[in-house]
Amino acid sequence: MANESRSNSPGSLLFDRPEHSADSPLSVHAMTVAYQRKPVLWDVDFDAPAGSMIAIIGPNGAGKSTFIKACLGLVKRASGIVEFWGSPYRDARLRVGYVPQREAVDWDFPVTVMDVVCMGRYGRAGWLRPISRADRQTASECIDRVGLAGFESRQISQLSGGQQQRVFLARALAQEADLYFMDEPFAGVDAATERAIVRLLHDLRARGTTVICVHHDLQTVETYFDHVVLMNMRIVASGTVSAAFTPENLRRTYGGRLTLLAEASEAVARAERGT
Amino acid sequence: MISGPDNSGTWAAIIDAATFRAGHNTTLVLVGATLLGIAAGLVGVFVMLRRRSLISDAVGHATLPGIATAFIIGNAIGMDGRSMAVLLPGAAIGAATGLLAIQWIVRATRLTEDAAIGAVLSVWFGVGVVLLSVIQTMEAGNQGGLKTFIFGQTAAMSATDARLMGAVAFTSIALVALLFRRLRVVAFDEAYARSLGLRVDLIDAALMALVVIVCAVGLQAVGLLLIVALLIIPAAAARFWTDRLMPLAALSAAAGGVSAFVGSVISASFARVPAGPAIVLVAGAIFLLGMLLAPSRGLVAGIIRQLSVRTRIQADHAMLHLATVGPMPIETALPPGLSGLLARAMLQRRGLVRCDERMVALTDAGLAAARLADRRRRLWRLYLIRHADIAASHVDLTADAVEHVVDPAILARLEAEIAAEDALDPPTQWPGRDP
């Protein structure tokens, strides 16, 4: 079912609480984010269905990354409530993993693949206790799961872009979280890495994990994900891919950006032919 | 004065100081300065990785007005203005005001951080120099001590100062060890660190506090003009030698310690040599050594690497050229220049070409090598075309055997493709060395 954005209906009150927030891994209510005076995200309501693969799509500057960062408290919210299984982020932190954009860090930093993946264990190990053998074991299993076995002691600058992305994924896996936020994991990766990530997503879904991905490639939304959020400073539509990923919703999200719109209709047409 | 003026500057004085025989006081000062150098090297690693080198320079300069003010107030209320107990809080307050000013300018105006840092650094230092001259006019007897703070004078330090320096150095080393994991994750990936619930602002504040402590305590030994160099240079020098954080921290600490020790020995042995410049020059020499000679990140290694790639490519081209055209003048096969000369020397040493005064020709071994080079070249080219998605990060033009770099299954497919091409359109027979 496609939910129209809550604030579209005239009767909605700003502070009526969503009903099943305790079951939902992520429930966002009336969240607004503003840099300076200009709003970036405006009055967003969203409930993530547990165990689903969710794509966030929208044009550049639509606030997709900001949405993730605001949920995690990395950028300041002007207003709104964000709850994880009915609790604030502070209390749910161990169950939530974050994969930032690859460009966000300096890949010449003096650490190895193993060092980076072990960062995923810091939340559980605490900040003083040494990383235990069990933690290292988990980390090396995660390195294996993303197909980087044998690269453990490689310095991260010696990796290709796709391999760097997989290191980030392995670090997130090492957290053993129940909900993952991924900021464009498919951006600029090679075909082998893309396949590895998709395999991983399906693997996570099989374990009942929820994944929320900022995604750019409209062509693959339908094959990689089962839910989609169409965002353009506000949530234009959200729901299952079959219900919400419609030409009409895409037009409303991407507006007058014709080239993108053409791409989108083409993708939808292909999807419809396929089903 | 520690060393007597009678033997100042002689080898005997230097050896005495370096072997801790120049008296109890000098020994204490040397140990204190060395510990401080180690602490500065260690803190400096994280300052560099967190990209705070420039801001710590500003913090170092911003301590001067705080110190001068503390000195004036301390003397006015009847304490010894030169004691650390008075100067340390002054330095901290001066640094904190400078830091806050920078943050406020960045937030309130459209200026970028480097402009704010530049402005605050010079204004705070200017205020400090003005205050120093005020001190000079009002206090005739005491001002000499403060002047050494700008350039540092190991010889002017008391045993108490040295003990405090050692203690503070130990404390900051312990603090870095305690925060090691947090500093690493914050410096590498700030957003991720915050998603783990780390208070990045507090960790940054702790790092800046360490910078202020090192600066304030190191003032007498190194002087505030150059104390920041002791934070930055050892870390930058160590970075040339390693790609791992633990060895980096250890090397940087060692470089800081050695610089401080050697510089202090020089300053203690020569009555007129200030400690700061001596220490910084030693650190600079260590930096230069790493920059030139480090095995993989050093300049010399880089030049050698580049030259060997170019030589290799030139030699391959020359062999292919000779194989298809036959003997030719040397300057046609191998264009003049360093890599051409090196390529010729390499080909001759391996017995692949024969040269007389003017002409060069392939030997039998050379013809076989040319065939191998041609196969390698065609494989790489095809690989780049067929596997553009994964290829770029795997291509290594200097790799002798494609097999070592490219997946065997892919290689087999490429070989088959080349064989099919050859069957359709047989390659022209190479004349090789026989015209």
Describe the protein:
The complex is a heterodimer of chains A (275) and B (435). Chain A has 275 residues and is of the alpha/beta class. Chain A has 11 helices and 10 strands. In chain A, the strands form 2 sheets. In chain A, strands 1-10-9-4-8-7-6 form a 7-stranded mixed β-sheet, with helices on both faces. In chain A, helix 6 runs parallel beside helix 7 (191-206) and helix 10 (247-254) packs antiparallel against helix 11. The longest helix of chain A has 17 residues, at 258-274. The longest helix of chain B has 30 residues, at 159-188. Chain B folds into 2 domains: 5-297, ABC transporter involved in vitamin B12 uptake, BtuC; 301-424, Orthogonal Bundle (Arc Repressor Mutant, subunit A), CATH 1.10.10. With 435 residues, chain B is mainly α. Chain B has 18 helices and 3 strands. Chain B has a 3-stranded antiparallel β-sheet.
What strand order characterises the main sheet of chain A? Answer: 1-10-9-4-8-7-6
Low-pLDDT runs of 5+ residues of chain B are 1-5
**CATH-assigned fold name of the domain at 21-103 and 178-274 in chain A:** Rossmann fold
| Sheet with the most strands: spatial strand order of chain B | 1-3-2
Question: Helix segment count of chain A?
Answer: 11
First and last CA, distance of chain B = 85 Å
**Which structural class fits the helix and strand makeup of chain A?**
alpha/beta
Query: What is the chain-wise order of helices and strands of chain A?
Result: EEEEHEHEHHHHEHEHEEHHH
| Topology-level CATH name of the largest domain in chain B | ABC transporter involved in vitamin B12 uptake, BtuC
* Low-confidence segments of chain A: 1-18
The amount of beta strand of chain B, in percent, is under 5%
Strand segment count of chain A:
10
* Helical amount of chain A: 25-40%
Quaternary = heterodimer
CATH C-level class of the domain at 21-103 and 178-274 in chain A: Alpha Beta
- Quickly give the CATH architecture of the domain at 21-103 and 178-274 in chain A: 3-Layer(aba) Sandwich
